[in-house]
């Protein structure tokens, strides 16, 4: 209840167990020795206590009481005596109900304002660079236990990749590795790209554990975003092929970014991973590039599960998955896009998601994930 509105209530009332006089009518003397039976009322209608006084509950915190509505319909003798005793200090039901309605409206407005203020504070906090850092600090003990074996996994993956390199280079000495790999046995190519994919996922997970590495000056260098996206697109090539997904590139980008490329790579990685998971088999994934004097834009467009209107503000929240996405038999944690959003916040990029009107197979909708990077040195 709005504390300001309480100051102008004309009738006696009880707010959170405290009795307060109204600005026009104080508590009657008779209420000083009663057993407060009105305060146990649960209904919102106008009631009558055994002493002949009326009351009405506004909400769990507020009760208007200690008044006498002379036109209240009752045969209780105590009520008639109160009407006679108080005379001009009585009121009519119309006035009482007007006060009830006004108090209820003020209560609703105040609750709405409080909810709006809470949402604004939460959204401001979620948009800050410290949002994910605070979550990481809270989860750090659990995350450390979960990632304790990451180093061992990375060593194992590195060994697998090196072994594939040896096999491929031995089979075709002097041939460029990518060319030789393309003609290697399908099983060998699958092992190589699966290892590279897992390697990239583990590298991304480390930024959740060590967010300070995102903007590490020692890791910054100039690089082209187009080349970085191409790297991750090739890593997902085997996954795309297994679902018969066609990947096309449109637009162009020739400018460079100055940042930690591994950290920036988490963003296209998350976009491509999302498309690989949810795009229906046999559809197309489009990688869009655009550039102006100040920005480089990258976008992944594919068919995906519909996002409900109230979910758009939550898409980049940690551990969030939309209802339609959860309904599909696709594993996911709601981790990748959240980490991408946090990295974007740290380096000064902007992420967004949109859905158009085009419909795809199985109830999917054309979905675009967009990242806009400022050219030149990126800073928090």
Automatic annotation (TrEMBL):
Residues 148-377 form the Histidine kinase domain. It is an enzyme of class 2 (transferase). One of its GO terms (cellular component) is plasma membrane. The keyword Kinase applies. InterPro entries: BphY/WalK/GraS-like, HATPase_C_sf, HATPase_dom, His_kinase_dom. SUPFAM superfamilies: ATPase domain of HSP90 chaperone/DNA topoisomerase II/histidine kinase. Its EC number is 2.7.13.3. Pfam families: HATPase_c. GO terms for biological process: cellular response to phosphate starvation. Keywords: Kinase, Phosphoprotein, Transferase, Two-component regulatory system. It catalyses: ATP + protein L-histidine = ADP + protein N-phospho-L-histidine. One of its GO terms (molecular function) is phosphoprotein phosphatase activity. Coiled coil: none annotated. This is Sensor-like histidine kinase SenX3. The lineage of its organism: Bacteria, Bacillati, Actinomycetota, Actinomycetes, Pseudonocardiales.
């Amino acid at each position: 209840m709005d504390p300001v509105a309480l100051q102008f209530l004309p009738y006696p009332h009880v707010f959170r167990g405290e009795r307060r006089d109204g600005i026009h009518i104080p508590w009657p003397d008779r209420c000083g020795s009663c057993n407060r039976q009105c305060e146990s009322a649960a209904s919102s209608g106008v009631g009558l206590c055994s002493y002949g006084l009326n009351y009405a509950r506004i909400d769990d915190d507020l009760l208007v009481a200690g008044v006498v509505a002379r036109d209240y319909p009752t045969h209780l003798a105590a009520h008639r005596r109160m009407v006679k005793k108080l005379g001009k200090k009585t009121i009519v039901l119309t006035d009482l109900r007007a006060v009830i309605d006004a108090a209820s409206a003020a209560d609703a407005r105040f609750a709405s304002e409080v909810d709006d203020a809470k949402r604004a504070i939460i959204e401001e906090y979620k948009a800050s660079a410290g949002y994910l850092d605070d979550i990481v600090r809270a989860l750090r003990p659990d995350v450390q236990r979960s990632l304790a074996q990451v180093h061992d996994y990375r060593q194992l993956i590195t060994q697998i990749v090196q072994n594939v390199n040896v096999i491929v280079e031995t089979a075709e000495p002097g041939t460029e590795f990518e060319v030789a790999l393309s003609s290697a046995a399908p099983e060998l190519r699958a092992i190589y790209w699966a290892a590279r994919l897992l390697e990239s996922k583990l590298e991304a997970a480390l930024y959740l554990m060590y967010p300070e590495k995102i903007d590490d000056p020692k890791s910054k260098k100039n690089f082209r975003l187009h080349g970085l996206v191409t790297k991750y697109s090739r890593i997902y090539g085997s996954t795309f092929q297994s679902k018969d997904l066609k990947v096309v590139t449109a637009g162009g980008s020739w400018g460079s970014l100055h940042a930690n490329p591994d950290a920036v790579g988490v963003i296209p990685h998350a976009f491509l991973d999302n498309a690989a998971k949810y795009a229906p088999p046999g559809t197309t994934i489009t990688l869009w590039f655009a550039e102006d004097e100040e920005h480089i834009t990258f976008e992944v467009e594919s068919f995906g599960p519909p996002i409900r209107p109230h979910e758009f503000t939550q898409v980049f929240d940690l551990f969030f998955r939309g209802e339609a996405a959860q309904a599909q038999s696709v594993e996911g944690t709601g981790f990748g896009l959240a980490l991408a959003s946090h990295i974007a916040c740290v380096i000064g990029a902007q992420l967004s998601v949109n859905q158009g009107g085009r419909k795809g197979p199985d109830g999917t909708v054309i979905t675009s994930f967009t990242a806009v990077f400022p050219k030149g040195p990126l800073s928090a």
